[in-house]
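Teaching note: in complex prediction, the entire set of molecules is handled at once rather than each chain in isolation. The prompt given to students was simply: 'Predict the structure of this complex.' The entities are:
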Amino acid sequence: MKKYATPTAKDIKFDVRDNSPLYAQLARKIADAIRAGHYQVDEALPSERLLSESLNVSRVTARKAIDRLVEQGLVVRRQGSGNYIAPRFEQALSRLSSFSEELSRRGYTPTSRWLKRAVVLPTTDEQASLGISASTKVARLERLRLADEVVMAYEVSVLPQSVVRRPAEVEGSLYEYLGRGQQIPVRALQHIRALNAPARLAAQLGIDVGQAVLFITRVGFNAQGKAVELTHSYCRNDYYDFVAEMRRD
Amino acid sequence: MKKYATPTAKDIKFDVRDNSPLYAQLARKIADAIRAGHYQVDEALPSERLLSESLNVSRVTARKAIDRLVEQGLVVRRQGSGNYIAPRFEQALSRLSSFSEELSRRGYTPTSRWLKRAVVLPTTDEQASLGISASTKVARLERLRLADEVVMAYEVSVLPQSVVRRPAEVEGSLYEYLGRGQQIPVRALQHIRALNAPARLAAQLGIDVGQAVLFITRVGFNAQGKAVELTHSYCRNDYYDFVAEMRRD
DNA sequence: TCAAGATAATACCAATTTAATACCAAATTT
DNA sequence: AAATTTGGTATTAAATTGGTATTATCTTGA
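The expected output is the structure of the full assembly:
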């Protein structure tokens, strides 16, 4: 059998106790490797022949495995070229920076007025977003965000207690605090919506009731892909706007 | 025809574990170098011949790699002069997709109800955003955007007439139309704000006056870095939300 | 038990990439 | 203005890659 310089199939192994079809096992192994980040987006998988030879299966088997990955949207085929890792997470990439960092870069002085820093039990929404059980305690951080003494946003952050042991110690930048524990989010999904400010929020932001505000929900993931942060931001729209640079690829 | 005599470039791999074509690997390598700040904006890359000789690949391969960088908007070509790092490059990356593309990907059927497709003179704002003179005519496209027959957004796009000669011919996806003329935006700056819907907009979107809507202003740039699109979108917030994935780098 | 479907192997087909070569066109340098 | 350098384009051969049809075998369920 032909040997290759490196583990071509990138650590794909078969489980002898698994009696599901070979191609299904192979598909699962490759999918795991992709999700574990062993391949970059747009990188080619080993060719079907290479895969089949290095794993000692027929090419059709390897091919069927890849078929499954294509169905799952993990891989795209290109005849004559290869099978490529499909763009993940809709490939929407953008620089992730915290409120503090963003404002500092623009020359403002960011401050916080703390409303709450406590360890509590999570709501069901928070359990779902963070992937934790009902009994896993979380740190809940509520504060007003100010730029040069002007209230810009009301923000609620919820993080597993394992990530923020002593919430009261968080002072300025949450990300700065997290960075020390290697739990800083490297990826986040943000949902951006508009919202008519209800009475309590309006009072806190110092705006009229019903005024449109940006409502941003962010789930941040650490380097291991674990959700470590759920933040709801209610941003005054007249002082702050959200800028995104986008690219086509 | 000469046989691949010398150590064929096929054996040269920048990353032995990467099965991607050579030019793709090279493109990624150069892109990484650019992002790492090894080149200044406006600085020339090594010439194609120099690149190919120093890396022992054919000029076509080096050229294809650069092609990819140009498509990504990282590099601009100047015949007779060289390939230069594109201006205004920032590391904030996010996938740029049009309304149509976004909805299609989510399984909706996007349609448009056209309100206006005309060639007119630009407003001063539009002149500034697109970098054109007061006498340069523009195509103004106004439409309601629908997903599965439900009004999702009201959108106004303004483009230089040189880019859209016959506005009335634009039917579905604007980007699809632009793609044929090689003027498709590869980069865009979006400002996202919240807005209380004024009467006219509310009527068009079928919502109450004062209801919060997402107001998105987008300036799109083509591969040469020229502004080719200015689009204002007023999005119903209850049906559509804007999702952005962000990364730290 | 036996037939239908799933699974796997083999062989051949078609698209694409790589590469080499030659030459054109635009910009820069001398 | 001429020479040089740079990107732009076209053509062709060979190698590589995915695409597909066929067949044998195994598994599954009526």
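Point out the following to students. The mean pLDDT of chain A is 75. DSSP finds seven helices and nine strands in chain A.
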